[in-house]
Amino acid sequence: MPSARPIPTLPKSGRFTLPPVLIGTACEGCGALPAADILAETLGAKMAVVCPASCAATFSLSYTGMAWRVPFVHWIFESAPAAATGLRHAYDARGLKDVHVVCFAGDSGTADIGFQALSGAASRNENILYICYDNEVAMNTQGQATSTSTPLARTPTTPSGAGLLRKDVPRIMAAHGIPYVATAAVSHPDDYRQKLRRAARITGFRYLQVLTPCPIAWGYPHPDTLDVTRLAVETGLWMLYEVDGGKWRVSHRPKRRRPVREYLSLQRRFAALRPREMQALQRRVDGAWRGVR
What we know:
CATH topology: Rossmann fold
Low-confidence stretches: 1-11
Distance between the termini: 53 Å
Number of domains: 1
CATH superfamily: Thiamin diphosphate (ThDP)-binding fold, Pyr/PP domains
CATH architecture: 3-Layer(aba) Sandwich
């Protein structure tokens, strides 16, 4: 049996470092690792993290080690924003208003299991930064479909392809009237950092959704995580934008969008798609961009 290759996305930030006991708890090529590392690198020591049950919780801590070098709360699936709300008010009561309280949660804990707590915290405009790292499946529980799964993607609970429409959580959050909403992707770290810095300067509820592919669930070679992510952006399937104070702005516009089939063909989860289904996804993408100025 060949020996395991090193994780190519092993974090190097001083605020997020996998101790020896946690190396191997993240899958090789995990897209959530660089998302966590960039977050820690950008916000630094003035941060406290609430992480519900998820892949990130798995690689963040064990009984004998922790990856985060800031206060870290491992919470239940359903109510990370509620825990973050309590933490925020506790810091405020102690006069520590400069500490960023951050939720770092997966798409299942955001768009499905924890959505009521997310919506409630947004409606109250709690002073929290919420980051959803989106790998489009509930990978912490073996890869079931979530409501952010790309339509027609094959998962253990949708073996013939996900028939649900993708829940557009960033737009839903923008409809709450919160001060800042953005999308990002680990293939575009400068864009992600810039949005984190902008969010850090704003008071109130802020929401970022970061595309973080999973090679295990999506079915592509581990070293290709950043290439797959970049192609999601360049085909237009994953639009990079922000809604700042109610003003919409696209932060990256592909000069010439590549065909969606190039992205789909790299992943086993789309291996059974017929040409007409690929064309249907292409029409969805074209329609989404048609109204973008």
